[in-house]
């Protein structure tokens, strides 16, 4: 039997090979199915197993390690940079000769001709401003200017003026408190050194002096005429120019009265002239000097401008000393003492060092003014954890002086971070979080220490605290760095 071309044994072998391949694929599929079934079987859980796998783990205490470290306690607050001793600035009276204008314009309506400049540093003898072209000087002294000072005046304000003149190099000839010719000369020389003329008598004063002098002359003349008629009578009365007429007792009494009257008139005229001359001369008008308790000072704010009438407050002057006013909670203020060091830092990183000056209740102090509580604080500095339990949280005003302000000198009204160190540990000490401290029924402090599967109470003495961390010392037990104490259940 013949086979067609291409048929025979070779085709048969091909069919056998193809069958084998199909068998391999089937076996592989069976293996894969079996493996998947096994894996799925391992992942299947009973309802009880599923519930157990979602159950929260058994609760246990929350613990942290005991740490040996150095501890520093600080009070941190926000403060404001200010200048010390602010006080209002005003003129005590007119600048120049007075309220009525003279022919030369002196005493015209008061107008600021050169305004003061805020931020100016004021030294003794400086011109703060000018009014009607006249100067307003600053001098050192605690007695405020309240009147014009001139010949004949006396008092503490005159002594203050004389001492200031002497400091400026113009000797008044004494500082006894009476304004004499030496003081007048010193005032004139001082004004001249500043480019001004001292206040000399006004035209009105000169006219009054002339009138008083004329009154004295007239009184003298009247007395002379009255005296020259004693014991004589005119020819018209006697009819003879050579024979004196006898005077009756009545005439004598009348004449004596006339003489006494003329003498009294002369005495009064001389008294008025002497009194006026005692105050006549070089003066310091009430508005031309401002006495300041401490110089140099700083003109902080200005309330007038050129052309204004300086009838009210013209500004505010402060000392050149820089202070920082801060408000801290009462619990922190209890830790502060007079003389503690404070670190002051601005927002842009500038820093300076200050000293705690006043710790006062809010009711005893006000922002920007001198505190009524100027004595050092006597608050007990108790650096213990019990301070944190104090129930006083009312703000307490704290003033910090800055002897060397450095970059803070130009930072008026700027906010600064205030950091005051209130205590430090003696080297490295054992510390735990405040949350780890518990109080026993007997009032003793203790910590719970986890040791193995048990928790043991260890009584401790609490020391310095800072930022939620507190120093502890074991009291009758042992406590080591690295051991874990319970802070929560």
UniProtKB/TrEMBL annotation:
A Pfam family that the UniProt record links to this protein: PG_binding_1
Alphabetized InterPro entries for the sequence: Peptidoglycan-bd-like, PGBD-like_sf, PGBDSf
Composition skew (Low complexity), residue ranges: 90-103, 229-246, 365-391
Region (Disordered): 87-113, 229-255, 359-391
Residue ranges occupied by any Peptidoglycan binding-like domain in the UniProt entry: 154-190
UniProt protein name: Peptidoglycan-binding protein
Organism: Streptomyces prunicolor
